[in-house]
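Translate structure to sequence.
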Protein backbone atom coordinates (compact mmCIF):
# COMPACT_ATOMS: atom_id res chain seq x y z
CA UNK A 1 0.00 0.00 0.00
CA UNK A 2 2.27 2.73 -1.29
CA UNK A 3 1.04 6.32 -1.80
CA UNK A 4 0.49 7.28 -5.41
CA UNK A 5 3.50 8.36 -7.40
CA UNK A 6 3.48 8.84 -11.16
CA UNK A 7 7.02 7.49 -11.47
CA UNK A 8 6.13 4.36 -9.53
CA UNK A 9 3.05 3.83 -11.70
CA UNK A 10 5.26 3.86 -14.82
CA UNK A 11 6.86 0.62 -13.64
CA UNK A 12 3.47 -1.10 -13.60
CA UNK A 13 2.95 -0.02 -17.21
CA UNK A 14 6.45 -1.24 -18.11
CA UNK A 15 5.70 -4.68 -16.64
CA UNK A 16 2.57 -4.95 -18.79
CA UNK A 17 4.46 -3.86 -21.90
CA UNK A 18 7.19 -6.43 -21.24
CA UNK A 19 4.71 -9.26 -20.60
CA UNK A 20 1.30 -8.33 -21.95
CA UNK A 21 -0.05 -11.86 -21.47
CA UNK A 22 0.47 -11.90 -17.71
CA UNK A 23 -2.93 -11.05 -16.22
CA UNK A 24 -1.41 -10.59 -12.74
CA UNK A 25 0.40 -7.42 -13.88
CA UNK A 26 -2.88 -5.84 -14.95
CA UNK A 27 -4.44 -6.76 -11.61
CA UNK A 28 -1.50 -5.31 -9.69
CA UNK A 29 -1.65 -2.08 -11.68
CA UNK A 30 -5.39 -1.72 -11.14
CA UNK A 31 -5.06 -2.55 -7.43
CA UNK A 32 -2.41 0.16 -7.07
CA UNK A 33 -4.63 2.76 -8.73
CA UNK A 34 -7.79 1.81 -6.83
CA UNK A 35 -5.96 1.81 -3.50
CA UNK A 36 -4.90 5.37 -4.22
CA UNK A 37 -8.38 6.34 -5.47
CA UNK A 38 -7.14 7.01 -9.00
CA UNK A 39 -10.29 5.48 -10.43
CA UNK A 40 -10.23 7.32 -13.76
CA UNK A 41 -6.68 6.10 -14.43
CA UNK A 42 -7.76 2.50 -13.80
CA UNK A 43 -10.31 2.52 -16.63
CA UNK A 44 -7.88 2.49 -19.59
CA UNK A 45 -5.84 -0.29 -17.91
CA UNK A 46 -9.03 -2.29 -17.54
CA UNK A 47 -9.95 -1.67 -21.19
CA UNK A 48 -6.53 -2.95 -22.24
CA UNK A 49 -7.00 -5.97 -19.99
CA UNK A 50 -10.36 -6.78 -21.61
CA UNK A 51 -8.88 -6.29 -25.08
CA UNK A 52 -6.10 -8.74 -24.29
CA UNK A 53 -7.94 -11.45 -22.33
CA UNK A 54 -11.62 -10.98 -23.20
CA UNK A 55 -14.50 -10.84 -20.75
CA UNK A 56 -14.03 -13.78 -18.42
CA UNK A 57 -16.09 -13.88 -15.23
CA UNK A 58 -13.12 -12.72 -13.17
CA UNK A 59 -12.41 -9.80 -15.50
CA UNK A 60 -16.10 -8.84 -15.51
CA UNK A 61 -15.99 -8.78 -11.72
CA UNK A 62 -13.02 -6.43 -11.91
CA UNK A 63 -14.85 -4.34 -14.50
CA UNK A 64 -17.84 -4.02 -12.18
CA UNK A 65 -15.55 -3.03 -9.31
CA UNK A 66 -14.08 -0.15 -11.30
CA UNK A 67 -17.43 0.78 -12.81
CA UNK A 68 -19.06 0.94 -9.39
CA UNK A 69 -16.35 3.29 -8.13
CA UNK A 70 -16.62 5.56 -11.17
CA UNK A 71 -20.41 5.29 -11.51
CA UNK A 72 -20.04 4.35 -15.16
CA UNK A 73 -22.98 4.06 -17.54
CA UNK A 74 -22.22 0.43 -18.37
CA UNK A 75 -23.05 -0.91 -14.90
CA UNK A 76 -26.27 -2.70 -15.88
CA UNK A 77 -24.59 -4.22 -18.95
CA UNK A 78 -21.71 -5.56 -16.84
CA UNK A 79 -24.09 -7.07 -14.27
CA UNK A 80 -26.13 -8.68 -17.06
CA UNK A 81 -22.96 -10.25 -18.48
CA UNK A 82 -22.02 -11.57 -15.03
CA UNK A 83 -25.46 -13.16 -14.64
CA UNK A 84 -25.07 -14.75 -18.08
CA UNK A 85 -21.86 -16.37 -16.79
CA UNK A 86 -23.65 -17.80 -13.73
CA UNK A 87 -27.45 -17.55 -13.82
CA UNK A 88 -27.86 -18.99 -10.31
CA UNK A 89 -25.41 -16.61 -8.64
CA UNK A 90 -27.57 -14.84 -6.06
CA UNK A 91 -24.87 -12.21 -5.51
CA UNK A 92 -25.03 -11.08 -9.14
CA UNK A 93 -28.83 -10.99 -9.06
CA UNK A 94 -28.75 -8.83 -5.93
CA UNK A 95 -26.44 -6.38 -7.73
CA UNK A 96 -29.05 -6.12 -10.49
CA UNK A 97 -31.91 -5.67 -8.01
CA UNK A 98 -29.97 -2.95 -6.21
CA UNK A 99 -29.24 -1.25 -9.54
CA UNK A 100 -32.96 -1.14 -10.33
CA UNK A 101 -33.74 0.26 -6.87
CA UNK A 102 -31.14 2.99 -7.31
CA UNK A 103 -32.84 3.93 -10.59
CA UNK A 104 -36.26 3.90 -8.92
CA UNK A 105 -37.43 0.86 -10.90
CA UNK A 106 -39.23 -0.90 -8.06
CA UNK A 107 -41.13 -3.35 -10.28
CA UNK A 108 -37.96 -4.52 -12.05
CA UNK A 109 -36.25 -4.98 -8.70
CA UNK A 110 -39.15 -7.09 -7.42
CA UNK A 111 -38.91 -9.35 -10.48
CA UNK A 112 -35.23 -9.96 -9.73
CA UNK A 113 -35.96 -10.67 -6.07
CA UNK A 114 -38.57 -13.17 -7.22
CA UNK A 115 -35.83 -14.91 -9.25
CA UNK A 116 -33.66 -15.00 -6.15
CA UNK A 117 -36.47 -16.61 -4.18
CA UNK A 118 -36.77 -19.33 -6.82
CA UNK A 119 -33.10 -20.15 -6.24
CA UNK A 120 -33.22 -19.74 -2.46
CA UNK A 121 -36.73 -19.39 -1.00
CA UNK A 122 -35.27 -18.47 2.40
CA UNK A 123 -33.05 -15.62 1.23
CA UNK A 124 -33.59 -12.93 3.87
CA UNK A 125 -32.87 -9.90 1.66
CA UNK A 126 -35.25 -11.08 -1.09
CA UNK A 127 -38.02 -11.90 1.36
CA UNK A 128 -37.70 -8.57 3.15
CA UNK A 129 -37.77 -6.72 -0.18
CA UNK A 130 -40.93 -8.53 -1.24
CA UNK A 131 -42.45 -8.08 2.20
CA UNK A 132 -42.09 -4.29 1.90
CA UNK A 133 -44.10 -4.17 -1.32
CA UNK A 134 -46.43 -7.17 -0.93
CA UNK A 135 -49.80 -6.30 -2.45
CA UNK A 136 -51.76 -8.95 -0.57
CA UNK A 137 -51.83 -10.25 2.98
CA UNK A 138 -51.01 -13.73 1.70
CA UNK A 139 -47.84 -12.58 -0.07
CA UNK A 140 -46.79 -10.51 2.94
CA UNK A 141 -47.27 -13.37 5.39
CA UNK A 142 -45.52 -15.83 3.10
CA UNK A 143 -42.53 -13.51 2.77
CA UNK A 144 -42.50 -13.01 6.54
CA UNK A 145 -42.40 -16.74 7.21
CA UNK A 146 -39.46 -17.13 4.83
CA UNK A 147 -37.67 -14.21 6.44
CA UNK A 148 -37.80 -15.62 9.97
CA UNK A 149 -36.09 -18.88 8.96
CA UNK A 150 -32.70 -17.77 10.44
CA UNK A 151 -34.50 -17.18 13.76
CA UNK A 152 -36.03 -20.65 13.60
CA UNK A 153 -32.54 -22.12 13.17
CA UNK A 154 -31.17 -20.12 16.10
CA UNK A 155 -30.82 -22.55 19.03
CA UNK A 156 -30.56 -19.69 21.53
CA UNK A 157 -34.16 -18.59 20.97
CA UNK A 158 -36.49 -20.61 23.27
CA UNK A 159 -38.82 -23.10 21.58
CA UNK A 160 -41.88 -21.61 23.33
CA UNK A 161 -41.31 -18.22 21.67
CA UNK A 162 -41.06 -19.85 18.25
CA UNK A 163 -44.18 -21.97 18.70
CA UNK A 164 -46.11 -18.93 19.94
CA UNK A 165 -45.17 -17.06 16.76
CA UNK A 166 -45.98 -19.96 14.44
CA UNK A 167 -49.17 -21.40 15.89
CA UNK A 168 -51.57 -18.79 14.44
CA UNK A 169 -50.59 -19.89 10.92
CA UNK A 170 -51.22 -23.55 11.68
CA UNK A 171 -54.43 -22.61 13.48
CA UNK A 172 -55.66 -20.83 10.33
CA UNK A 173 -55.44 -24.12 8.47
CA UNK A 174 -57.11 -26.18 11.19
CA UNK A 175 -59.99 -23.77 11.80
CA UNK A 176 -60.37 -22.07 8.40
CA UNK A 177 -58.86 -24.66 6.06
CA UNK A 178 -56.44 -21.94 4.88
CA UNK A 179 -53.59 -23.74 3.09
CA UNK A 180 -51.79 -20.54 2.04
CA UNK A 181 -48.70 -21.08 4.14
CA UNK A 182 -48.36 -24.85 4.32
CA UNK A 183 -45.25 -24.96 2.09
CA UNK A 184 -43.51 -22.35 4.24
CA UNK A 185 -44.63 -24.07 7.43
CA UNK A 186 -43.29 -27.40 6.15
CA UNK A 187 -39.81 -25.91 5.72
CA UNK A 188 -40.04 -24.19 9.09
CA UNK A 189 -41.31 -27.33 10.82
CA UNK A 190 -38.48 -29.44 9.44
CA UNK A 191 -35.86 -26.91 10.54
CA UNK A 192 -37.54 -26.49 13.91
CA UNK A 193 -37.38 -30.23 14.58
CA UNK A 194 -33.72 -30.37 13.53
CA UNK A 195 -32.78 -27.32 15.59
CA UNK A 196 -34.55 -28.63 18.72
CA UNK A 197 -34.29 -32.44 18.44
CA UNK A 198 -34.97 -32.99 22.16
CA UNK A 199 -38.02 -30.73 22.36
CA UNK A 200 -41.36 -32.54 22.08
CA UNK A 201 -43.08 -29.31 20.99
CA UNK A 202 -40.79 -28.97 17.99
CA UNK A 203 -41.39 -32.56 16.86
CA UNK A 204 -45.14 -32.24 17.42
CA UNK A 205 -45.36 -28.98 15.47
CA UNK A 206 -43.69 -30.55 12.44
CA UNK A 207 -45.93 -33.58 12.84
CA UNK A 208 -49.01 -31.35 12.81
CA UNK A 209 -47.81 -29.60 9.65
CA UNK A 210 -47.24 -32.93 7.90
CA UNK A 211 -50.64 -34.14 9.11
CA UNK A 212 -52.25 -30.97 7.71
CA UNK A 213 -50.57 -31.66 4.36
CA UNK A 214 -51.87 -35.25 4.35
CA UNK A 215 -48.29 -36.54 4.68
CA UNK A 216 -49.40 -39.20 7.12
CA UNK A 217 -46.31 -41.42 6.99
CA UNK A 218 -44.08 -38.48 7.93
CA UNK A 219 -46.59 -37.34 10.54
CA UNK A 220 -46.50 -40.78 12.19
CA UNK A 221 -42.71 -40.61 12.45
CA UNK A 222 -42.85 -37.16 14.00
CA UNK A 223 -45.56 -38.08 16.48
CA UNK A 224 -43.61 -41.16 17.52
CA UNK A 225 -40.55 -38.96 18.15
CA UNK A 226 -42.78 -36.62 20.15
CA UNK A 227 -44.17 -39.36 22.37
CA UNK A 228 -40.69 -40.64 23.16
CA UNK A 229 -39.93 -37.19 24.56
CA UNK A 230 -43.34 -36.57 26.18
CA UNK A 231 -46.22 -39.09 26.10
CA UNK A 232 -48.74 -36.96 27.99
CA UNK A 233 -50.20 -34.87 25.15
CA UNK A 234 -53.62 -36.22 24.18
CA UNK A 235 -53.77 -34.35 20.85
CA UNK A 236 -50.55 -36.04 19.70
CA UNK A 237 -51.95 -39.49 20.50
CA UNK A 238 -55.18 -38.61 18.69
CA UNK A 239 -53.45 -37.40 15.52
CA UNK A 240 -51.12 -40.39 15.59
CA UNK A 241 -54.11 -42.77 15.70
CA UNK A 242 -55.85 -40.90 12.89
CA UNK A 243 -52.70 -41.00 10.76
CA UNK A 244 -52.30 -44.75 11.34
CA UNK A 245 -55.96 -45.26 10.53
CA UNK A 246 -55.53 -43.51 7.15
CA UNK A 247 -52.41 -45.55 6.40
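Result:
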Amino acid sequence: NYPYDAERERYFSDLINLSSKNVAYYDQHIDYLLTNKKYALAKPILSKMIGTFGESEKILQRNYEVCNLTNCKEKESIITKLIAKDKNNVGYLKLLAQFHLEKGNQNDAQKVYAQIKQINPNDTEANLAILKTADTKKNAESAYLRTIMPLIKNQNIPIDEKIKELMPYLKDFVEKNDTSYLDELADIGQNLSLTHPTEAKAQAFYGDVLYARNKYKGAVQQYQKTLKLNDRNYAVWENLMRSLDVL
